Amino acid sequence: MGDLIAEIEACVPALRRYARALTRNADVADDLVQDCLERALARRGLFRPQGPVRAWLFTILLNLYRNGLRASRRRGETVAIEDMPSEPMTPAAQPGHMALAEIARAIEALPPDQKEALLLVVLEGVSYAEAAGILGIPQGTLMSRLSRARAALRIIGGTSGEPYLRTVK
Fold it and tell me: CB-based contacts of 65: which residues, under 8 Å, 6+ apart?
């Protein structure tokens, strides 16, 4: 059991990265990871070592994220008044920062199924087979979603984001 907890602990940075990329909000992402870890630890007796702990945790996190999206669509989104900017925001002057911001906006515009697949493979470096297992889809479907996501990003942002989105599998 101690080995399982150590494996879970080793996955926390990757879970945080993926959650932040999905939610684009550090606080929401941290809550999502915490919920994921709570669920994993509470149900660790259900884990059967048929696959890596990492895939099991990503599956839990992704299911919690999707459940949260469905719930937020039903109740709507609220924004605290103190979170509203008091002055107009100006974009950063660095070209590299702008390119990353453009890529982030383009990824955010993708349909959820494409975004989830792209972030798992590109951001987390998960293999196609493992990503397909985490998402609960056939590997061919995963590859199709990745292809559509990359094509959409090329259309949305020209070719500026293409080098960042290539993976070798």
Answer: 19, 22, 23, 32
What's the token pair of residue 63? 């299911």
Quick one: the chain helix, strand, coil %, rounded to 5? 75, 0, 25
d(CA 23, CA 21): 6
In terms of pTM, does the model score above 0.70?
no
Q: Which range has the worst mean pLDDT, 33-37, 47-51, 53-57, 89-93?
A: 89-93
- Burial of residue 68 (CB within 10 Å: 0-12, 13-18, 19+) is middle
Instruction: For residue 118, give the nearest of 101, 105, 131 by alpha carbon.
Output: 131
Average confidence (pLDDT) over 154-162: 63
What pLDDT, in 10s, does the model give residues 87-116?
655 555 555 555 777 888 888 889 999 999
Report the SS3 class of residue 131.
helix
**All structural domains of the chain:** 1-76 (1.10.1740.10), 93-169 (1.10.10.10)
| Residues found in the chain | 169
The H or E element containing residue 109 is none
